[in-house]
Amino acid sequence: MAVLMGIDTGGTYTDAVLLDDQRNEVIASAKSLTTRPDLSHGIGAAMDAVLSQAQMQGSEVAMVSLSTTLATNALIEGQGGAVALVLIGFEEETLADSELLDALAGDPVLHVTGGHDHQGDPIAPFDETALLAGLETVSDGVTAFAVASRFATRNPEHEQAARDLIRGKLARPVTCSHDLSKALGGPKRALTAVLNARLVGMIDTLIAATEAHMASRDIDARLMVVRGDGALVSAQLARDRPVETILSGPAASVAGAQWLTGAREALVSDIGGTTTDICVLQGGHPKLDPQGAKVGPYRTMVEAVAMRTFGLGGDSEVSLSSGLEGGVMLGPRRVIPVSRFADTYPALVRRTLDHALQFETPPEHATRFVVPQWSELPSGLDRREDAVAQRLASGPLPWADVIQRRVELSALRRLVRRGLVALSDITPTDASRLQGRVDAGNAEIAKDALTVFARRRTANGGRVALSAEALADQIVDALTKQTSFAVLETAFADEGWEDAARMARHSLTVAGLRGHRNLITINTGLAVPVVGLGASAQCYYGAVGETLGCDAILPDAGGVANAIGAVVGQVALHADGSITSAGEGLFAAHLPGGPQQFESRDEAMNALRAALTEDAGARARAAGVEDIRYRESLDLRESQIEAKSIFIEASLRVTALGRPRLTK
Question: Which of 273, 311, 536, 315 is CA-nearest to residue 424?
Fold first, then answer.
């Protein structure tokens, strides 16, 4: 028997499963809370629990595979390390004309002369002196660099030169855009590089925590990581390209859903603590996004499942609707459920809520707490950030004790965005605790916190709710409603409707969901089942199925589908290149080491194919694949002029596939 361990680290839970690789069955499964800032505790607890349940030793595990939603969650919540972007050969207007400015969120940009043209020839020398001068201005708080050069996909030499210079000068991680994508589109490649650089520290910490606990339990096995398209890659590749783990957890969930249910046509919806991730399952396989993964507002060049990610989960922040009709809204930010926060800090929460319960109309943030996420005070903070951090030096505090002046709000938001501080407040998890849907957390604290929040005033002057129980009903109803809209939006988008978000919430759609019958009959619903995954899916998705008029498939092991999916995939490593016309009778093959010219298209194609096959195969062998299969995809673009075919460009992808060799 070959035993495989799958681990999924989400925003709230870390799941672990053991699978019998020969019999294709789950041996054991377990959950633990994801522990921030030290992920090792949650990962270790899940691994220990699943080994104990199976009564097995770590030495019996033949492979470990890891999936995660941390990268997705970080981008949804605007978190991650501070970065610096080096733009080579781009005009300064590039920032204004793309999503780059928003993604940078005030992080520095260094403009350097250089870059190449469409053929891979330099348009200007690389200005090494300017880059060195720019590096002198970068603060110690910058954790990584992103480098994007004009037409680096045609010739990467200037990106490589900048990378080597930065590493030699500052010894910090550097992401080159050409390593992440061979597609044209400089601003989008730069955006993808920025997001990758922002995630480097987070994913490295996750992998290191997993490796450390593997060693402590005598698990001498290969560690793999799930990519956003569901394929497995080596831990080192995931460290180098963490942005490729965007939608890693959801991709693993879809693979797990298909393995658990055998469903071939369905919408798979995975609810976590931070996000709900929805994907179309067609013919038993998840659809891939041809435009690149989109997470929150950002469209990247990362290949991934065609997943729509919504800032909606069991731990979503509850806020008041702005309209006069009142009501509550959920997300997109995740907060720590106050009933679970009280498990660790009972006296602080009890004292704060007892004080708030004395008021008929409590302060706006009476149920909110600020929680430091560092082991020692962080460096590189500005004056206001440092003032907020100093107040938290001894541990969590109520909101009112942290924000003493209005101008400090933006400083706190920056600390939250960078993952240095977390917030705790009421969530759907607290509402479900009061209703008895979940067992974790302090039920008394949940009721008191909901009571305080219910006493707040809406825009029309009335109370939010008459009781804690009534507010809990509102919150769970809001989760059902927002989840149903998210599923409908995914369905409309997959069918090609314009403005899918508006269509999902259109008055006619809503009337159809309610079964409108008068002079007009309106029916709206899904024609395929919804597969509900996630720890809380059993609590909520029955109502979602009823709302959408479809079957809701809720597999018993759906709470650990992501961990199951982490070990049922295979390695698939791509190498991409292109051939362009270099003039009459000349063809330029854009190889990993730079462009080379050939006198025939076939010669150029053979050279490119050989280079890409070697590249993909070498990385597959490094990932432990011995029996490698190769797959080619060729996009040949020609023009017909007077019945003669004129070559324009060819793009070739070579994919190396196979299962990694087991070590036991």
Answer: 315
> What was the pLDDT predicted at 169?
92
Sign of CA dihedral 567, 569, 573, 576: negative
Half-sphere exposure of 628 (CA within 13 A, CB side): 22
Instruction: Compute CA 84 distance to the chain's CA centroid, rounded to the nearest angstrom.
Output: 21
- Spatial contact of 236 and 273, defined as CB atoms under 8 Å apart: no
Structure tokens at 619: 């990385």
Q: For residues 105 and 578, what is the distance between their CA atoms, to the nearest angstrom?
A: 34
- Give the pairing type, strands 421-425 and 571-581: unpaired
Q: Are 301 and 153 in contact (CB under 8 A)?
A: no
DSSP state of 488: H
Measured CA distances, 209 to 13, 203, 347, 447, 597 (Å): 15, 10, 31, 36, 47
**pLDDT confidence of residue 97:** 62
Q: How far apart are CA 568 and CA 65, in angstroms?
A: 9
Cα gap 529→105, rounded to integer Å: 40
Contact of 275 with 70, CB cutoff 8 Å: no
Determine the residue type at 304: A
| pLDDT averaged over 10-residue windows placed end to end, the chain, 664 residues | 89 89 88 84 94 94 91 77 93 76 89 92 94 92 94 93 95 92 85 91 90 94 90 90 85 89 93 89 83 77 84 93 80 93 96 96 94 87 92 95 90 89 96 92 96 91 92 96 96 92 94 93 94 89 94 91 89 90 87 87 94 93 91 89 81 92 72
The first and second tokens of residue 615, run together, are: 């590249």
Which residue in the block uniquely carries the two structure tokens 């989960």? 313
C-beta atoms surrounding 57 within 10 Å: 11
- The two tokens of residue 510 are 């809503």
The pair of structure tokens assigned to 358 is 């004395």
C-beta of residue 513 within 8 angstroms of C-beta of residue 524: yes
What's the rounded Cα separation, in Å, for the pair 164 and 171?
9
Burial of 181 (0-12, 13-18, 19+ CB in 10 A): buried
Length of the chain, in residues: 664
Instruction: Show the CA angle centred on residue 206, arms to residues 201 and 211, nearest 5°.
Output: 120
Query: Contact 273/10 with Cβ under 8 angstroms?
Result: yes
How far apart (Å, rounded) are the C-alpha atoms in residues 162 and 176? 9
With tokens 């149903």, the residue in question is 484
Distance between CA atoms of 264 and 55, rounded to whole angstroms? 35
Report the alpha-carbon distance of residue 86 to residue 109 in Å, rounded. Answer: 6
C-alpha to C-alpha distance for 270 and 377, rounded to whole angstroms: 36
DSSP 567-593: TS--EEEEEEEEEEE-STT-EEEEETT
Strand 25-33 relative to strand 61-68, pairing = unpaired
Distance, CA of 514 to CA of 548 (rounded, Å): 9
What pLDDT is stored for residue 501 in this prediction? 93
Of 12, 50, 10, 51, the closest CA to residue 30 belongs to 50
For tokens 């080192």, the residue is 236
Residue whose entry in the numeric block shows the structure tokens 């190449």:
116
pLDDT of residue 139: 86
Residue pair 563/589 in contact (Cβ under 8 Å)? The answer is no
Report residue 99 as tokens: 């999503």
Intra-chain end-to-end CA distance of the chain, in Å: 10
pTM above the 0.90 mark? Answer: no
Q: Which two tokens stand for residue 261?
A: 């249910």
Count of alpha carbons within 13 angstroms of residue 70, beta-carbon side: 30
Cα–Cα distance between 224 and 239 in angstroms, integer? 11
Identity of the residue numbered 178: H
Q: Are 68 and 74 in contact (CB under 8 A)?
A: no
CA distances 237 to 80, 229, 242, 285, Å, are 19, 15, 8, 25
